[in-house]
Each structure stands twice: as structure tokens, then as C-alpha cells.
Amino acid sequence: MIKKVSKHIVQNEPLLFEQSSPGKWGYQLPPLDVPPVDAASVLGKENVRAEIEDFPEVSEFEALRHFTRLSTWNYAIDLGLYPLGSCTMKYNPRVNELVARTEGLAWAHPYQPEALAQGCMEVIAALERALEEITGMAAVTLQPAAGAHGEFTGILMMRALLEKRGNARKKILVPDSAHGTNPATATMVGYSVENIKSNSRGMVDLEALERAVTEDVAGLMITNPNTVGVFEENIRKICGLLHDKGALVYMDGANMNALVGVARPGNFGVDVMHLNLHKTFSTPHGGGGPGAGAVAVAEVLKPFLPGPRLKRAGDKWAWNYDLPDSIGRVRAFYGNFGVLVRALAYVMAHGGNGLRQATLDALLNANYLRALLEPYYEIAYKAPSMHECVFSDDRQAKKGVRTGDIAKRLIDYGFHPYTVSFPLIVRGALMIEPTETESKQELDLFADAMISIAQEVDQNPELVKTAPHMTRTPRVDEVRAARQPVVRWKRPQ
Amino acid sequence: MLAKIGAKSLEDLVSYLPADVRFNGKLQIDDGKSEFEIVDYFKAAAAHNANGYASFLGAGVYNHYRPVLVDTVVSRGEFLTSYTPYQAEISQGTLTSIFEFQTMVCQLTGMDVANASMYDGSSAVPEAAMMAVRVTRRDRVLIARTVHPEYREVLATYTRHQGIPVDEIAYAKNGRLDLDDLKKKLTNEVAAVIIQTPNFFGLLEQVKEIAALVQSKGALLVVVFTEAVALGLIEPPREADIVVGELQSFAISPSYGGPYAGIIATHEKYIRQIPGRLVGETVDAEGKRAYCLTLATREQHIRREKATSNICTNQALLALMATVFMTVYGKQGLRELAEQNLAKAHYLAGKLPLVFDAPFFNEFVVRANGRTPEQINNELIEKKIVGGLPLGRFYAELKDSMLLCATEMSRRQDMDTVAAGFRA
Fold this sequence. Notes:
The structure holds two protein chains of two kinds. Chain A is α/β, with parallel strands linked by helices. Chain A has helices spanning 39-43, 60-71, 94-100, 103-106, 118-135, 147-164, 181-188, 206-212, 235-244, 337-373, 394-397, 403-412, 440-459, 461-465, 478-483; strands spanning 139-141, 171-175, 192-196, 217-223, 248-253, 272-276, 293-297, 309-313, 316-320, 378-379, 389-392, 419-420, 429-432. In chain A, the strands form three sheets. Chain A has a seven-stranded mixed beta sheet, sandwiched between helices. In chain A, a hairpin with a 2-residue loop joins β8 (309-313) and β9 (316-320). Chain A is globular and about 75 Å long. Chain A starts with 38 loop residues before the first helix and ends in a 10-residue tail after the last helix. Chain B is an alpha/beta fold. Chain B folds into two domains: 54-66 and 331-423, Aspartate Aminotransferase, domain 1, CATH 3.90.1150.10; 69-324, Type I PLP-dependent aspartate aminotransferase-like (Major domain) (Aspartate Aminotransferase, domain 2), CATH 3.40.640. Chain B is built from 13 helices and 14 strands. In chain B, β5, α9 (207-216) and β6 form a beta-alpha-beta unit. The relative contact order of chain B is 0.15. Chains A and B meet through α1, α2, α3, α4 and α5 of A and α1, α2, α3, α4 and α5 of B.
């Protein structure tokens, strides 16, 4: 039975371009306090455009209504559980938004003199220190803009170290359960990719790994806990295998929400890893970004960190550009500073003990859901779950209902779907990560919905296969979008 | 809940982890703080920065007014706290706004297709270079020295291990790309020529001439912009094959260098080579117009090591800021805004010794008249003004010069103070 949602008026809304009227505007500029200049005479007539063809022309209030109406067509964490596995959709504390807008921080120019940017540098230094402590690693760079950007940074550093030792080597090993960004990253750093299969418990197959680790291997990219939410119990052995052959271990920290305060990658042999500050550290996903992909390294990789690096000069902070072994910049300036402010606020609000407590709560929520759902859905692996649990649609597939259908039906019950069909090693995966910020009541409602859907699959599979039925927009034809791509509005001829 | 999972305490949830990986210490991070204390901490940090200074810094990051509506819209939890819109049925708000964003980026740049945004302008440059390498099946890249120096550094980092040699094109005496140097270096192996307009010195490049030259050799022209407001007034680089740039100017606060929103736009024929997320129009089961993420077969989660890029995240919320900004200003407002920038910059420049003689938008290079740029800046700081960017750190030959920027936020009296600072 659907308990969480009921019908609701939703406004229709055309595109901005369709409601524009010539001459409307929503801006105000003060009168110019200097003489106007004639654009054509200072720029050259050929350099001045006639107009921006078809650009919007609406009033301020029309603009506000437009975006407010669009917003009501979205689901969001602020509306309910968002159990996307590996995405860590937790509460985004609003104090973080407030402090990121503190005037002296939000309006700091990246090139303002260092003496007038000490506050920004303090914030960066404080977050670097906290993340070093959390990961147990020797140093952290906050420059990368996102998780995949962090992976790229990390693999570049591995390559730089190996080159310095005389041989960059040829291959990166990637378990078959890994995120797609891992192999794509290795390619961008000039490595070929070799997949390592998982064993029947959802973990890296040690024998397969041992065979694969040759003198050609630069390193392994491993996610821990892995994408089925299971801790790689042989992680020390795995790191040892790589290190014995002179190779390195990269850890994808997408699932760090399971480890903070409980285990530190720097203590179990990882050489370099990234953290998704928009996952573990609660900065908002914003419909797809911004993120920030802090990268933590062991002592041996420190000289290769991207520049500039913070340093102490007397009692002041300064940027150090003199880094002969650095891989260089991965982006302009110093990173997604506004995201870093939010992440530091999250760390400060929790403190050391609070961070550990959040981890345990996340594990409790995931295991509670697992216990409630295991009678109805096939758990992919029996191994204990950490922060997420992965089921397969094996039982429901017998009725012709697949994970994607169950996900769409979940929408009717008032929830965002879980991660669908990932990881690839689980046939028809349902990957569920509730995070620590959900209450028992919300978890119970979610489990009720999932159980009710399992019953619908038995009694009325068509109902599930044609879902969603309650949304403003029913199923969308994605095949058509890809066959005849229309990626911008054009004035009808 | 513990009973349901058969555990006695929360600690049972981690007790099975191997003893040699468990962390038994206490994280050395201060105890949790209240909201009040957190706000206080960041206020104190901000007080250690410049506060109440007028600034004439540009160089890729610009001070423009942020209309109030921008934060009103992006603070809505439905935009702020949603994930990437993979589930189209409950993400039409984000998808529709991105479709509008893509459209406005095309209108602004004169291109046919644009993606849902890149990390920032700097990382969009190597993505454009890699795209040109895929399209032309050639491997060399030329980049003008008048492209933002940090963007060029990022290009070097990205291309180093992908077998893409990069060479720089000098600038001429007038501060624009040296056409003779380009002709000399433009061989049949060149995949892309990358220029910036307005360039790092604020000057307009001769896009038409350069495009004709580059395309006659079968290479692609990539045009970069860092000051999006210029596009309200100047002719867009319609002749380019790929346009990349930075939308920080569109209501994204400087925020000490990020987060910003980059763009990549190109022609229809290259749509399948574009990196990152794309939103496309389609219909729902009732035949009504709807939007969804599309052409995902280019992307890492499908193609893995064969993807066009490893990019996963985009900058949706920042792109939304820019979208609201473009909507609020609109066709008429963006032009007036650009005209104000042009007027202010020309007012200030008119009082100062310019290094280059070429058309400029809202930035220009000024010689320090026998003193160092740092000396002038130090004196201005006493007057609560942050001056221009001394250029010596990026161009040794311009160590006696600084790059100044004036926007609609620059007050006449402050500009007069800056001008007087050069005479002192």
C-alpha cells in the first residue's frame, strides 16, 4: 500500500524561450558613472554582435516562477530517502550553505595578495589536516574538482613516482566491480586496463590478482568497501602483493562513508586515494555537481602532489610553487574552495567522535534494511554489508520484472530509486545505501514499499512493469532521445 | 533496530573487520561544535581576508553583481539536494533547466550543441584538445601564449601521457596571437589550435582570419573565453569548431577559485565526440515533451576505458546559477551589462599607459612607469584597493606590467584613485 504520497497539483510550464516577449527584462543596473563608449568604434564594427538571437526576455517575477515551477518537478533528499548506492545521499546541513556565503570567503579572488587571503588558506589547511587524520595518510591535495578528477590526479602521481624509479610500466588492474571512472581514468594517464574478476563472496579473487600482478603492472585501483558494500577482508594481503612487485595501490574512496573513524586506508597499505566531499562530507549534489575530489597520499607520493601547495612562511600561510617533482596543475587556482568550506563545516559539526558515530549509524541503517528486505529479495552476496546492501532481481525476473521496473515503481511509493544495474558483476542489481541521516520511520516506510512491490510482482507484474503511474511525467522514451538527438531549443520555422 | 539485525551493540557492526585494519584510536579532531560556533569560526576566517576592498583583479575571475534571484532559486532544496537526473520521471526540473542552459550557451557562443557543463574553464581546454584529436585523428596541439597561463598548465598536465605534443604560439607586439608564428607551426599533424578571446591580456583575437588559416590545414579551431559577459556584446566565435569557456562571470561568486562552471560547445556533426553529460528532448509515455540524459554511450559508466573522458560529475548547480543570471538579464540586459563593462574599462584605461594597441573589452595591460607593479599595488592596498595582477609570474618579459580589470562594480572614484596611483 502506498503510504507516503498523495496527489498534488503540479503547474505546467513552457520553456523560457517560449514565454519570452520582446522588450521584457528582469535586471536593474545603476546609471553609468563614466561616459558611455561606442562599442563599434572601440572594438571595430565587425567585432560587435547585432543581438543574442532568441535569448530569453522575461520579467523578474516570471523568471522566479519559472524556476520555482521547474523545481517542483524534482525529487530531492529534502523530500525523502534517496537510497542511491555508492552516491551517499545524506542530509546537506544548511549551516554549510550559510558559511560558504560568508562575504570575505565567497568574494575572495584567487589572485588577491596572500596577505589578504590568509582566511581562505587557513580553511584549506584545516581541511587538509582533518582529512589526513581521517584517512591516516601523509598529505592531502584539495585541488581536484570531483571524484574522477581525483582519480586522474592520483594515477598521474603513481605514474610520476614509477617514472622517477625508471619505469612507468604499462597496466592498471581494475576489479570487475569497479566504477566506470576507474578504467576511463587509467586510459587518460596512458595505461592499459586489465580487469580482475571477483570471487563468489564479491571480493577480489586473490589467485586471479596474484597471476595478474607482473612487472608490467603500475598499480591496482580498488574500491573499499567495494561496490557490493563488502569490506575487502584481504586488503592488507592485496596491498602486499602489489608492493612486493613494486606496484602501487589506489583506493577509490567513494564508499568512505563506511570507514570514517573505523578504519584508515593509510594504516592498511593504500598509497593514494580520493575522497568525494559531496558524498562522505555532505556537500550538496546540486543535481549533478559541484563536487570536490580531495586526494590523500602516502609519504612516498608527497613530492608529486599537484601545485601549488600551502606552506608556512613565518606566522603566515603562503603558496609554494617551487615543486620540481609535481605532476603540475589539474585545474586552475586551488580547487573548489566553496565546497571545501562546506566539508570543513561538516567535520567541525561532528568532531572526531561524531564522525565515527555517523559511520556506525550508516552501517546500522544499511544492515537494518538488509534484514528487512532479505526475505523478499535475493541478497547478492552473503558476506556482511557495511554502508550499503546489494540485491539481485533474480526472484522478480522469473515474473519478467527487472530491477529497472522495481525502481520505477518505487517512485510511486514516494521514494527515489536505488542504484539500478550496478555493479555490473551482479545480474539485475539493486544497490541500496540509506546513509546515517535516515530515521527508523523513514527506513520502515521504504522497506514497506519494497515489500509491497515484491508482492505486486507476484500478483500483478504489469503494474510494476509500466510504472511509474503517479508522477507528472510517466516513463520517458530514452531510446528516441538518443536516436534523434535534440539538445537545444530552436525557434520553430 | 539492533535486535532486527542480531547485533548487541553498534560496535558489533565492525567487530568482524580484520583486527589489523580496524582503527582503535580516536580521531584527533576537536569535539563537535554547535551551529553558532561554526558560523563564528568562518566569520573569523573571513576577517583574515580582504574585507571592504575595491578590486581591479580579473585574469579569469571577475567581480560581477549577483542578482538576488540566483541564490533564491539555487537554495531550493529540490535543486540543491537532488542527484544527477538519471531518473527522468522525477528529475524534469533539473533536466529542463539544463536543456535551457545548453540552449543559452549555444545562443551565446554561436554553436549548435553544448553539454550540461564542465568542471571549469581550465579543465574544459584539455577536453577540447582530446576531442579534436579524436575528430581529426591527428595528435599535435598548438596553444596561444595569450590563453590563460593556468589553463595552459592544465593542458600540459592532461596531455603529457596521452601522446599529444603541445607547442605554444607567440603573441605579436600588439598583444594578439602572432599569425606568422602560427603559420610556421601549423603543420599537417596539428589536430587543434587553441586561442582565447578576449585573450588573457583582455584583447580581441582575429578569430575569422585565424579560423580560415587553421581550417585550411585540416585542424580544428578551439576558442576559449574566460569573461562570459563579453559575449553580450562581441561577435561570438561562430567560425570556431569547438568553444570552451568559463561561466564564473554569470553569478558565480569568486570563492577563491571555485566551484565554477565550464562549458563546451560545438557543431552538430561532432555531437558524439563531446565529453560529459548531455540532456536531450524526447517524449513520455503519453506523448508529451520530456527530457532525459542522452548519448550516454560516450560516457565512462557505459564505455569504461573506451569513454570520451573519465568525467562523471558536472557542475549542475553552478550551471543553474548561470542560467538564472542569463534569464534575469536576458537579451537586453546582458548587452547593457557588457556595455557598462566596456565603458568602465575604457574610462580607466584612458588614464593609463597601455602596453598593447588592440581592441579590448574589460581588461588591459598597463606599464608601471618606472616602478614595479608590486609597489603600486602596495600603495593602493593602503587605500583599501586591490590593484591589478602583476604579470611577471606568468610572463617574464612583462614583469614591469600589470593586468587591470574594470567591471560594472568598479566605482569611478576608485578608478580615479588607481589612475592617481600610477602617477605618484
